[in-house]
């Protein structure tokens, strides 16, 4: 485990050094990126079909009902933090951050947010323990479906499917998933 953390830290340092070499962004806050934003999300399917996994239960009394709007504070994808989202689905489940190596090859994906319990192959009872191995059935990113993953965190929460427009104008529909803690009431 220490070696994994050491390698992750080294990777972050190398990435930060590489980005710094591309130009001075210290005076331009719009160019700053969080560690999670620096991960390659180019293979992520920002929009979805709107289909939900079998067995997923709609939330009976969500904080943000279907059709309402909320401000997103999530930053696990570029362009989503600080934009208005329209709620298209609200569900009660266990949500996981997971790490996995895509079935299509490429670099491992660390701490991917979010995969829900119903997007795991034969998961058993929720919640699963940290460091437990699972097989993903989600297809949010290329190479995710069928990949073996490790549970990084597990949270029982209401999760939302949302529509939004990114800061650069990309329209995203049926995005899966945003947790309730990543939304704020509109002011």
Structure description:
The protein is built from 1 helix and 8 strands; from the N terminus they run αββββββββ. The relative contact order is 0.21. Strands 1, 2, 3, 4, 5, 6, 7 and 8 form an 8-stranded antiparallel β-sheet that branches. The protein is mainly β and 187 residues long. The N terminus is likely disordered. Helix content is 11%, strand content 34%.
How does the overall form come out from the CA principal axes? globular
Helix % is: 10-25%
Number of beta-strand segments? 8
Between the first and last Cα atoms, what is the distance in angstroms? 43 Å
CATH superfamily: Domain of unknown function DUF1541
């Amino acid at each position: 485990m220490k070696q994994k953390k050491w390698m992750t830290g080294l990777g972050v340092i190398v990435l930060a050094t590489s980005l710094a070499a591309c130009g001075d962004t210290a005076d331009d806050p719009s160019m700053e990126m969080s560690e999670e934003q620096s991960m390659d999300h180019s293979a992520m399917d920002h929009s979805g079909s709107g289909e939900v996994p079998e067995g997923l239960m709609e939330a009976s009394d969500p904080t943000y009902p279907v059709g309402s709007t909320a401000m997103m504070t999530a930053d696990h994808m570029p362009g989503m933090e600080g934009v208005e989202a329209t709620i298209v689905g609200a569900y009660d489940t266990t949500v996981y951050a997971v790490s996995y190596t895509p079935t299509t090859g490429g670099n491992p994906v660390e701490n991917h947010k979010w995969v829900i319990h119903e997007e795991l192959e034969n998961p058993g009872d929720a919640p699963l323990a940290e460091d437990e191995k699972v097989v993903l059935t989600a297809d949010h990113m290329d190479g995710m479906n069928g990949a073996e993953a490790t549970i990084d965190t597990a949270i029982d929460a209401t999760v939302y499917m949302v529509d939004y427009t990114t800061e650069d104008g990309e329209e995203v529909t049926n995005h899966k998933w945003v947790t309730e803690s990543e939304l704020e009431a509109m002011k």
